[in-house]
Amino acid sequence: MEDSGVHVGGDAYGGVRVTAPRTRRTRTSLRSLMITGTLSGLVLVGSGFAWAIPGYLSAQITSVDAGTAGSSSRSAMNILLVGVDKRDDLTRKEQNQLHLGRQEGQRTDTMMVIHLSEDHRKVTVVSLPRDTWLDIPGKGEHKINSAYQFGGPKLAVQTVQQATGLRINHYIAVNVLGFIDVVEALGGITVCTPVPIDDDKTKLKLAAGTHQLNGVNALHYARTRATGRADLDRIDRQQQVISALLAKAISGDTLTNPAKFGALVNSTLRTLTVDAALSDDFLGLATQLKDVSTDNVSFVTVPLADVNYRTATGESAVLWDKAAARDLFHRINTDQPLIPPVKPSKSPTATPSPTAATIAPNRIAIRVRNGTLITGLGARTKSALLAAGFLVPTVPGDTATRTYKNTIIRYGPARGDSVRTVAAAFPGAELRQVDIDGIEVILGAENHTVRKPVTATPKPTPTAASTPTTKTATQNICK
């Protein structure tokens, strides 16, 4: 691992007091990062600590009337999670230290809808880009992040319900407190960036690869827009950071350490505002999530039709792909897989021809493992895949058995299209459909040389909605 070494101020916390008394606590901006709210629901489970004492949780959380629908203990649930960027009581020096800008007031830069399936075993997190241009009830067309500014939690909930067709059962807002504390309570996080980051605004400089980040650097990593796709890349980074925090939060090292778990919970709870019903039964929500693993936490961003939309007022915004978005939310609402399962081919070991590939490499993430005794084969293959345009977010590992003769491409039922592109990069490799979510390449002594695949433009299907790209929390975690 390497540390970015980026510090703001004179110490490892960027010169910001992260454990000051509550009467004068230095505050940090989450901007568009709703990480701590997600963690609250996902980590307060199955522990024997004091958090289960009746009334403890509700006493630590601020509640508000958000006009939400409420929920029963055994039904599917939708939670609107927003990050409230409030900096009114930050000093100018504190804003400068954390590169927060000078705007006053409260905004939500990004919203997420968290869907808990009816069997309470799967969680889907849908990112709603902050620049989404849509109709806000009673206010006309604006960016989605204006809803909270216009009408607080109630209007934010109404806007999301109108746009998605989902019934919002609960509301969680993460204020500007505590993100650095949460990361530090977990001992930092590990992230992987497929491209270098050089952000003059936050002074964050990261080479492509894996990095261990402290609280301040994690904040900057999640906020930066200094890469090619700007806010869309930032959403990907936010999802990766949530996954990294979630993995650490539910690890044995955290849950079996009372001091560490206590610091995490306290850091998390004091950042939250929730609807009144959820405040009264926050532990109930946590209990409902007890069967969820990182393999069953999926992230998806609303499909977009135009990422460079120019409004009548000259603002730059994004427009949803209405048909694809409608299909996405219908699947979520009915607990269907986000990507329909692909039927196995009659010849599962056949290698598709390069011309059969229609998914571009830059949309495909691959995990690489070395199944041979060839030193450095995994690292060299990762470099070759990156050069060919693929995403390889994790460090290649080794298989338990190092005697693989042929290279094997393992893929889940939902990756039938993507695997054609991967197969084109490894001519002669064996394809195996297995019960996983992503794509894994086990390198053998033969057919491990990477070739740049040729992708063909698929025939248009005007009546079919485009399929959103999904990742699980496990896929987002650096290995």
UniProtKB/TrEMBL annotation:
Record bears the keyword Transmembrane: yes
Record's keyword terms, sorted: Membrane, Transmembrane, Transmembrane helix
InterPro entries: LytR/CpsA/Psr_C (IPR027381), LytR/CpsA/Psr_CW_biosynth (IPR050922), LytR_CpsA_psr (IPR004474)
Stretches that traverse the bilayer: 32-53
Pfam family, one: LytR_C
Residue ranges of domain Cell envelope-related transcriptional attenuator in the record: 107-249
Region called Disordered, residue ranges: 337-356, 452-479
Boundaries of every LytR/CpsA/Psr regulator C-terminal domain copy: 364-445
Domain of life, source organism: Bacteria
Biased segments, Low complexity type: 344-356, 455-479
Family (UniProt): Belongs to the LytR/CpsA/Psr (LCP) family.
Protein name: LytR family transcriptional regulator
Native species: Acrocarpospora macrocephala
